[in-house]
Request: fold
Amino acid sequence: MSVLIVAGLLGAVYAYWHHSEIYPSTDDAYVNAHVVQVAAQVSGRIARVFVSNQQPIRRGDPLFTIDPTSFRIALEQAQARQALARQAVSADSAAVSAAAAALADRRVQLDNAKVTTSRIQRLRDKGFVSAQAYDNAEATVQGARAQLNLARARLRQAQMTLGNTGTQNERVREAATAVAQARVNLGDTHVSAACSGRIAKLSLRPGDVVQNGAALFTLVCGRQYWVDANFKETEIGRIHPGQLADITVDMYPGHHFRGRVEHISGASGTAFSLLPPENATGNWVKVTQRVPVRVAVLNPDPRHPLRLGTSAEVTIDTTNSAPPPSPAIASHP
Reply:
């Protein structure tokens, strides 16, 4: 009888060991989800708050608004400056056209003065006009040439003042950018939910003054949950991404969630702790480390809502997928 009892105990121990080898499990696991720190994109006074603490919301639902009065005024000012910039560019464009017309007129006057001087030169050679008349004609040519150079300089100055033409003009683009920024700032006074989930840590009230970028409250996104399970380093060799898992949470002990291994951390949990252990100093005691494994929850159940940070137990089936192949090492000549 004692032999049968011992054999039964040994068989039970072997079965437990074999099961734990195939189905590694840990209760050092916690539910997690995406968390959005809601912040204002502009500074101002809160006008309305549309949500309350722990309220479930959907993506796109309004959260709060900032008093838009000053931002509407800023947009109107930017639009007025844009109109002024367009008027200024139109005036400068007209100035360029006028300078180009003046240049063409000066070119015609110079050509006419050259023709007149050539005629007077022929008459002077025949003795019909005096040398003084020819000198006056030459002076007129030189004056026309100087006026032509002046007209060219004024055209260049007008073109530089104008800059690029049309929508590519620098002042027009700057004014358009200012209008776009003012419009964005006005739109940022209305803040909506980035995901569906639940509000947490809300203390915002109408009349509060908020600063740009300062976190105001938390939005826990509820469409995607996972469990951060900390397995012993001796078990990690049998765990690979893609393997299926069974998840139970302490809130619902009789309910099972299906899971799948997404990835395994590249370091143990203590490697990123605030005060990591200094194993190279003092008396060293070997302690089995734990490595975080992220297990996605495949079937979240609205009747059993998961809560961020709650305890869970994860059991992984290591028989349902083969380990990934080792990466090839490139040979270098």
Summary: Residues 71-184 form one domain. Residues 69-125 form the longest helix (57 residues). The chain has a mean pLDDT of 85. The two ends are 70 Å apart (CA to CA).
